[in-house]
Amino acid sequence: MRFDIITLFPELFTPFVEVGVTRRAYSSGQVAVQCWNPRDYAPGNYRRVDDRPFGGGPGMVMMAQPLADCLAAIRAQRAEAEPAPLVLFSPIGERIDHAQVQGWSDSQGAILLCGRYEGVDQRFIDRHVDVQLSLGDFVLSGGEIAAMALLDAVARLQPGVLNDEGSHQFDSFNPALDGLLDCPHYTRPEVWEGEPVPAALLSGHHANIERWRREQSLRNTALHRPELLDQARSRQQLSRKDEQVLASADLVNLAKPL
């Protein structure tokens, strides 16, 4: 798959694709990434890509024409057989979740537009943008971090990227499993600052370990993201035993406000 990134700061992506476990996806070509700077398509000595908003107000707005010319160059380079929706990271966009990431990981890629300043000229959005996405209800200084988040989530789902091929199957929010939060994890030493690893994890009894992990996953979800339980129920992914765990007095007593 291929992701073309429209950004005023392509240098931000250089270390991103060269470090960490997900670099395997980029170095192997499983996920191809190419950055495009709209300044390269802006006229004049100053290569201006922004201007003041009509109607007044603070900040600047990214101009439509340099973005349109940059987009045309990208589409000309991509093969016609590679459909590439244009994605804008925006506060009005649909929030990215695991199901969306899975969908993008199975796609041929996209063109990611990283906005800056006060935003992008609405006429460009109306004419060219196919999808708008958001990381959440907060504002970043630009779309680059959101683009990196999507790329990282997609890259780690590619075959051979993670050391353990099945690792991502147990990620939090995976609806193919149940969509719940993951259980806590522990490693050596067995006792750290007086606190031991839970006995179930040291038992060597696989059934007990799996039971403990399931109960902890249910507990985490009930305490921190209870709406995920409702979604799992709607998909009929909770068993009678799960409901018994959720109804236990122990779990109720642990439900304290954050």
Describe the structure.
- This protein has 258 residues and is an alpha/beta fold.
- The relative contact order is 0.12.
- It has helices at 13-16, 23-27, 64-77, 98-105, 122-128, 144-155, 199-202, 206-224, 227-234, 240-246, 249-254, and strands at residues 2-6, 32-36, 50-51, 61-62, 86-95, 109-113, 131-134, 191-192, 195-196.
- It is built from eleven helices and nine strands.
- Helix 3 (64-77) packs parallel to helix 5 (122-128).
- The mean pLDDT is 90.
- S-adenosyl-L-methionine binds at residues 115, 135-140.
- Pfam families: tRNA_m1G_MT.
Portion of residues within helices: 25-40%
The domain tally reads 2
Order of helices and strands: EHHEEEHEHEHEHEEHHHHH
| CATH topology tier name of the largest domain | Alpha/beta knot
Radius of gyration: 23 Å
Neighbour order of strands in the largest sheet? 2-1-6-5-7
* CATH class placement of the largest domain: Alpha Beta
**How many alpha or pi helices?**
11
CATH superfamily of the largest domain: SPOUT methyltransferase, trefoil knot domain
The appropriate CATH architecture of the largest domain is 3-Layer(aba) Sandwich
Class per helix and strand makeup: alpha/beta
Largest sheet: 5 strands, parallel
State the gist of this model.
By secondary structure, the protein is α/β, with parallel strands linked by helices. The chain has helices at residues 13-16, 23-27, 64-77, 98-105, 122-128, 144-155, 199-202, 206-224, 227-234, 240-246, 249-254, and strands at residues 2-6, 32-36, 50-51, 61-62, 86-95, 109-113, 131-134, 191-192, 195-196. The strands form 3 sheets. The chain has a 5-stranded parallel beta sheet, with helices on both faces.
